[in-house]
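ok new one. same drill as before - structure tokens go in, u give me an amino acid for every spot. 406 of them this time. try not to just spam alanines like last time pls lmao
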């Protein structure tokens, strides 16, 4: 305590003497506080008295907890709103304008074969088959070469089959051969059934390049990755359109290129490699107009999950209205271990059961030097197989071109 005779107290009283009398009634003289006057209990009590909702007596704790929960959600809602407005909605509007198309890639080498067209369909993660069809120039020995561009918002095989048939009618094409790579082969089989059963167009054959006839034909790690993707797309709002989530998923899928966990229990990240992977993902999977959307990839994987390829093969092996049975060609690496995505030995067994045999329509073409459905990387091997094996086999079903007389 400060003694009454201290200079500090005398100065304090002197200041009080200068305060007007009406204010003196509201002013309680008190010596200045010192360190000894500090009370943490008093501080906490004052905080409790002045906090928001301090006057709530009924369910006060619950009401305050709900209030703080609501306030904590404000930044979450702000970030979520920006995510939806800047990321999801523009992509959704862009995808709403996309539609499937058929592109002419090559004319027939022989003008007499222009009434036949080979229609190419690509697999998982791809939109347009034009680049793949361009690498398969040997197909021009059979006829024209067309490429299907998927609707980037999803796949409807009935729409694709109608589109192909309408394009064939518009160009005077009577005979069709479908060529599907990887998952594109599953789409090709469904489209083939529509064409074979519902139209008058002759379907000469279906070429399946390393195609999984069902989900069991997809190797375990790839199957797990696809199922994880379906779960994430189902759980996260806007995941079918979000480009930011696409960056995260695609970068994580390439973690073996920048993440090293061999030498330590704590993974080591190579930042320079991570930067290169990040740039590659942005360039090829997000900013590219030809990149498949999350929704298309989901739709493509669902085609495999719900694959009715065996039913499609049974339908193609049943005679309809006197039409010749379509041929089935299976292209695969000679050693199945070179395909890291599809168990081609399993697929071949299913195809032999459904389309093989003495009276069957199956040709298995085993190629050297190829991996999983990679004609762009190995065009020489694919084109040699087309010229030497696939074209002669399909020629037996195609009607002979008219002979010109002078």
């Amino acid at each position: 305590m400060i003694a009454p005779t201290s200079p500090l107290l005398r100065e304090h009283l002197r200041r009080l003497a200068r305060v007007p009398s009406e204010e003196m009634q509201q002013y309680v003289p008190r010596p200045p506080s010192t360190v000894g006057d500090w009370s943490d209990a008093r501080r906490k009590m004052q905080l409790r008295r002045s906090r928001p909702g301090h006057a709530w007596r009924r369910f006060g704790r619950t009401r305050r907890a709900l209030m703080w929960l609501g306030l904590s959600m404000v930044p979450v809602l702000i970030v979520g709103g920006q995510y939806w407005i800047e990321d999801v909605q523009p992509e959704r509007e862009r995808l709403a304008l996309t539609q499937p198309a058929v592109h002419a890639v090559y004319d027939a080498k022989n003008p007499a074969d222009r009434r036949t067209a080979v229609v190419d369909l690509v697999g998982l993660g791809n939109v347009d088959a034009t680049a793949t069809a361009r690498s398969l120039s040997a197909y021009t020995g059979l006829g024209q070469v067309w490429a299907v561009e998927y609707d980037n918002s999803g796949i409807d095989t009935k729409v694709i089959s109608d589109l192909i048939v309408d394009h064939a009618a518009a160009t005077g094409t009577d005979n069709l051969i479908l060529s599907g790579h990887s998952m594109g082969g599953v789409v090709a089989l469904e489209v083939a059934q529509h064409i074979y059963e519902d139209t008058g167009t002759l379907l000469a054959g279906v070429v399946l390049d390393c195609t999984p006839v069902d989900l069991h034909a997809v190797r375990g790690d790839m199957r797990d990755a696809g199922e994880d993707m379906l779960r994430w797309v189902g759980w996260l709002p806007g995941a079918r359109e979000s480009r930011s989530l696409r960056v995260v998923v695609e970068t994580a899928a390439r973690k073996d290129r920048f993440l090293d966990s061999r030498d330590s229990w704590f993974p080591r990240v190579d930042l320079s490699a991570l930067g290169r992977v990040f740039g590659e993902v942005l360039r090829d999977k997000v900013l590219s107009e030809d990149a498949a959307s999350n929704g298309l990839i989901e739709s493509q994987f669902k085609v495999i999950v719900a694959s009715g390829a065996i039913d499609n093969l049974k339908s193609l092996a049943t005679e309809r209205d006197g039409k010749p049975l379509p041929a089935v060609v299976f292209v695969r690496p000679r050693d199945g271990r070179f395909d890291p995505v599809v168990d081609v030995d399993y697929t071949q067994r299913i195809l032999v059961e459904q389309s093989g045999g003495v009276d069957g329509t199956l040709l298995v073409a085993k190629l050297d030097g190829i991996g999983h459905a990679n004609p762009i990387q190995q065009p020489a091997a694919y084109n040699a197989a087309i010229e030497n094996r696939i074209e002669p086999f399909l020629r037996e079903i195609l009607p002979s071109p008219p002979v010109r007389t002078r």
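Strands lie at 101-106, 116-121, 144-149, 175-181, 202-209, 259-260, 268-269, 327-333, 362-367. and btw The chain has 14 helices and nine strands.
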